[in-house]
């Protein structure tokens, strides 16, 4: 008996024995992990058995189809074939259900499911945990704190600041007309919306359309848009420890540092300005507080637990969302009007009649351009600035048609697919502003360019005002036409972008 035991133990006493044990343990762990992944995949398959989907590879999911065809085009094919929702496999044990039905949207957006940490966490090194990424009670507290920054009394004087920024951009376009027959507008509009945001939300009156720092920040934002999306689509980049070692991971880190330098510099400057103005309560009594004022006041209040990290996260979040989504919207609106000259001309005539030959636009004018507003909304339907948002179900859900999903499931609310769903919008690819004519009826959750429910865009009124100002003043100065040789290709990133830019021909109006 003792001899047999010793005969087993003896070979394990040296290095080869330790390696043997390690190999066996490694194999056991691998088998356990394989079994875990297999059981999880079986759970996913059972959960979505009521939701048909295109054939997928057991390991690579729908990646092959996504590589063969533009993602948005493929998505629209699924919308026509599979009612209400469709499972999309990212890889073997990772999948989400894509939602594009208004009843489904309404049900989810009226709940309080958190945003999925699985994909949204990739934004955290850049944006931190501000309104976009927060969940639960902390999100509610921050939302309530920042809501006063978007009261109409505060938004009213912003119209003049918006108009000034737009005119600077249009003057630049006029100078560039002689240099090039076609102009890529997204970059110029991004500078303009950043300039507007800095003036309105952060009381910074510098000309950010000519500053090198602003251009560096916009380049960082452009890079991060692409890098974050690329990481979401590549399962091998999901682990932080691996991603940091890749060229893309290092590039992401550098872009985050550039973006943070911009916001840190602005916060530091604003704090110094407030100290010069004296007692904070005196400042409050003199003027309305802007977005950054509210954050800084909250930080010094004894009732607030807003840390420096929290403050920068909110600034980083609004700095990005406040300019990039609006830049996307305005760019696509101008493209839609360029490709539909009859609607462009009707908008122009409406604005000329409203302003009586002038170019000075005010808050009161914004509600007096119904046809232009209809065209803006129709362009937002075709090109929603945020293509989709994600949720992780905090409890089971049963949809109106009886199909259900369990707790813990990931769903993607695709606003792009919703807006192009032929069951919701007849002839969805046709630009038809009459869909938004006064008195027209539609499902409450058929049109969601600013999302919906309690987590809708806090700055949606600010954004709509800026769109109206930019479109009105642009149409007064220029006639727009598309570049037939460079047709934009919509592509989903954090915001809706074009793979090849948005190029327009501009003709100065006499």
From TrEMBL:
<dbReference type="GO" id="GO:0005506">
    <property type="term" value="F:iron ion binding"/>
</dbReference>
<dbReference type="GO" id="GO:0006629">
    <property type="term" value="P:lipid metabolic process"/>
</dbReference>
<keyword id="KW-0349">Heme</keyword>
<keyword id="KW-0812">Transmembrane</keyword>
<keyword id="KW-0503">Monooxygenase</keyword>
<dbReference type="GO" id="GO:0020037">
    <property type="term" value="F:heme binding"/>
</dbReference>
<dbReference type="InterPro" id="IPR036396">
    <property type="entry name" value="Cyt_P450_sf"/>
</dbReference>
<keyword id="KW-0560">Oxidoreductase</keyword>
<comment type="similarity">
    <text>Belongs to the cytochrome P450 family.</text>
</comment>
<dbReference type="GO" id="GO:0016712">
    <property type="term" value="F:oxidoreductase activity, acting on paired donors, with incorporation or reduction of molecular oxygen, reduced flavin or flavoprotein as one donor, and incorporation of one atom of oxygen"/>
</dbReference>
<dbReference type="GO" id="GO:0005789">
    <property type="term" value="C:endoplasmic reticulum membrane"/>
</dbReference>
<keyword id="KW-0472">Membrane</keyword>
<protein>
    <recommendedName>
        <fullName>Cytochrome P450 4A11</fullName>
    </recommendedName>
</protein>
<keyword id="KW-0408">Iron</keyword>
<dbReference type="Pfam" id="PF00067">
    <property type="entry name" value="p450"/>
</dbReference>
<keyword id="KW-0256">Endoplasmic reticulum</keyword>
<dbReference type="InterPro" id="IPR002401">
    <property type="entry name" value="Cyt_P450_E_grp-I"/>
</dbReference>
<dbReference type="InterPro" id="IPR001128">
    <property type="entry name" value="Cyt_P450"/>
</dbReference>
<feature type="binding site" description="axial binding residue">
    <location>
        <position position="457"/>
    </location>
    <ligand>
        <name>heme</name>
    </ligand>
</feature>
<feature type="transmembrane region" description="Helical">
    <location>
        <begin position="12"/>
        <end position="32"/>
    </location>
</feature>
<keyword id="KW-1133">Transmembrane helix</keyword>
<dbReference type="InterPro" id="IPR017972">
    <property type="entry name" value="Cyt_P450_CS"/>
</dbReference>
<keyword id="KW-0479">Metal-binding</keyword>
<dbReference type="InterPro" id="IPR050196">
    <property type="entry name" value="Cytochrome_P450_Monoox"/>
</dbReference>
């Amino acid at each position: 008996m003792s001899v047999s035991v010793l005969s087993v133990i003896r070979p394990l006493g040296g290095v080869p024995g330790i390696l043997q044990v390690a190999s066996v343990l490694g194999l056991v762990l691998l088998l356990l992990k394989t079994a875990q992944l297999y059981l999880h995949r079986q759970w996913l398959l059972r959960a979505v058995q009521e939701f048909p989907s295109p054939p997928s590879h057991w390991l690579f999911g729908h990646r092959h189809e996504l590589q063969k065809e533009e993602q948005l085009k493929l998505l629209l094919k699924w919308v026509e074939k599979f009612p209400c929702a469709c499972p999309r496999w990212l890889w073997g044990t990772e999948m989400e259900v894509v939602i594009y039905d208004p009843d489904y949207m309404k049900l989810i957006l009226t709940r309080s499911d958190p945003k999925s940490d699985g994909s949204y966490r990739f934004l955290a090194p850049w944006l931190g945990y501000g309104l976009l990424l927060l969940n639960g009670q902390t999100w509610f507290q921050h939302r309530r704190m920042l809501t006063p920054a978007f009261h109409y009394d505060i938004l009213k004087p912003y119209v003049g600041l918006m108009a000034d920024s737009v005119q600077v951009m249009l003057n630049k376009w006029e100078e560039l007309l002689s240099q090039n027959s076609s102009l890529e507008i997204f970059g110029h509009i991004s500078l303009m919306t950043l300039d507007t945001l800095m003036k309105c939300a952060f009381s910074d009156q510098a000309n950010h359309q000519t500053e090198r720092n602003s251009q560096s920040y916009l380049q960082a934002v452009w890079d991060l848009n692409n890098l974050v999306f690329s990481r979401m689509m590549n399962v091998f980049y999901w682990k932080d420890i691996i991603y940091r070692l890749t060229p893309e991971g290092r590039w992401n880190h550098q872009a985050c540092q550039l973006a943070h330098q911009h916001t840190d510099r602005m916060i530091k400057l604003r704090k110094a300005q407030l100290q010069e103005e004296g007692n904070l309560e005196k400042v409050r009594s003199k003027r309305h507080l802007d977005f950054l004022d509210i954050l800084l006041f909250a930080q010094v209040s004894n009732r607030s637990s807003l840390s420096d990290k929290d403050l920068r996260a909110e600034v980083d979040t609004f700095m990005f969302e406040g300019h990039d989504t609006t830049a996307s919207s305005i760019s696509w609106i101008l493209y839609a009007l360029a490709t539909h000259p009859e609607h462009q001309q009707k908008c122009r005539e409406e604005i000329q009649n409203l302003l009586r030959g002038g170019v000075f636009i005010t808050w009161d004018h914004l509600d007096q351009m119904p046809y232009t507003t209809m065209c803006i909304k129709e362009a937002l339907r075709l090109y929603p600035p945020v293509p989709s948002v994600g949720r992780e179900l905090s409890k089971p859900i049963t949809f109106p048609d009886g199909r259900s999903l369990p707790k813990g499931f990931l769903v993607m609310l695709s606003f792009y697919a919703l807006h192009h769903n032929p069951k919701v919008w007849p002839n969805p690819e046709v630009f038809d502003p009459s869909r938004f004519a006064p008195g027209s009826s539609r499902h409450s959750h058929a049109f969601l360019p600013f999302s919906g429910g309690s987590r809708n865009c806090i700055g949606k009124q600010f954004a709509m005002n800026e769109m109206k100002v930019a479109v009105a003043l642009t149409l007064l100065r220029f006639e727009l036409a598309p570049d037939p040789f460079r047709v934009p290709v919509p592509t989903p990133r954090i915001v809706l972008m074009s793979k090849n830019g948005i190029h327009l021909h501009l003709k100065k109006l006499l």
